[in-house]
Amino acid sequence: MTRIQEKLVEKIPAWRDRIKNLAKEYGPKVISEVTVEQCYGGMRGVKGMVCDTSDVPPDKGLIIRGIPVQQLAGRIPEEILYLLLTGELPDAPALKDLQADLNARAGVPQYVWSVLEAMPADSHPMCMFDTAILVMERESVFRKRYDEGMKKEVYWEAALEDTLTMVARLPEVAAGVYRLRYKKGPRIPNNNKLDWGGNYVAMLGLPDPKGEFAELMRLYLVLHSDHEGGNVSAFTTHTVGSALSDAYYALSAGLNGLAGPLHGLANQECLKWVLMVREKFAGVPTHEQLKDFAWETLNSGRVVPGYGHAVLRITDPRFDAFRAFGKKYMPDDPVFQIVDRVFEIVPDVLKQVQKIKDPWPNVDAGSGALLYHYGMTEFDYYTVLFAVSRAMGVLSQIVINRAMGSPIVRPKSVTTDWIEKTARESVKV
Ligand code: AMX
What we know:
Elements lengths: L2 H24 L9 H5 L13 E2 L7 E2 L2 E2 L8 H10 L5 H14 L4 H9 L6 H11 L5 H7 L7 H27 L14 H9 L7 H12 L8 H11 L4 H12 L7 H15 L6 H13 L17 H13 L4 H18 L12 H10 L8 H22 L12 H13 L1
Antiparallel strand pairs: 1-2, 2-3
The structure holds amidocarboxymethyldethia coenzyme *A.
Amidocarboxymethyldethia coenzyme *A (AMX) binds next to loops.
């Protein structure tokens, strides 16, 4: 047994007891209410699901297993995966064990490349990435063992198998998509002497003489790893997984949601917007020019990408972490300087638009400029980087949910007639 398996075997019984006791003691207690507005507002703020891997208080930002993300910024992604799954950071032997396990599982089968190579040359890299995951579904240990009559108590073990195999392969898939889609030459093989993030960078094949790009990528993979359970990708992964569709089906589905411009695709939109600014003003604009341009964007009915959030009401601490990286390594880069200037101007502009609840930058506002600096200029690829990282969070949630015996998701929808009648009656009372 690997150390991560041992740790989960040790912890799961207590987690199960806690939930069982909660349900027994407080089952019928009301802890949340739903308003008419929320029914028509994407269920924003409705508390009706559980996610123990991370939490996003609106005034604090991401907290992974009790640790604010700022404190995790110097860690490597494998440590975060262990933390997400077990609730603890690994000690040195546990980390080494996990890295060895991931290395042993690495290696993308040839049939995946054959499928990707057969896709039209203008396919979106996210479509290629999600397709690769779905194509590997035939290897699901969960599906195989379910068909053989696996007991519910051990669903999580099979889900963990699928999770670790996918996590091990995703950097290679993602790097392969990059090299194929942008005609960068032959694939660069997996190097099992490198850490997970460093290996990903090596397989992308961009020059990184000082190792700064690898450092950025480790930070990127840590910061995007999870963002509680209700965002589109996490909720979709959870819902699909709740039908006991295996983790390949569930992850591919969730990442299809990440591909939306209001969710993960915002990072590509963001850099596009910043480069548009650079082109229009032939460099870094003045504060006044930038203010006018932000208004122009808003008045034309478009969003300012990278700003606003469904939950957060502060500057996203993940944005702060990327900004600190930029200030350290590329303070003179004009693209980074524009990002910084946008941060000085845009919140005040957005504050004047009453309907916008959060005028502050989210994780996507700055990351693109950093990637661009290191030569990753194909910005429609950026969401794939996000996806490689987010896979750690949503897959960990699947393992936990199978361990807790979470049932199939099935909220009750209601008709507009029902809402009208119920709301009117509640006013009369
Ligand atoms: N620019 C312009 N308008 C904005 C805005 C922005 N940055 N942020 C919010 N708004 C608008 C919304 O479009 C909405 O308008 P509508 O009522 O006419 O449809 C109104 O303000 C109210 O929205 P909200 O309650 O403040 O936000 P929300 O929870 O509905 O949406 C989000 C959140 C992120 C989709 C939205 O802020 C947005 O579109 N931002 C820009 C895109 C972006 O950065 N997305 C990345 C999010 C992080 C991630 O998942 N990667």
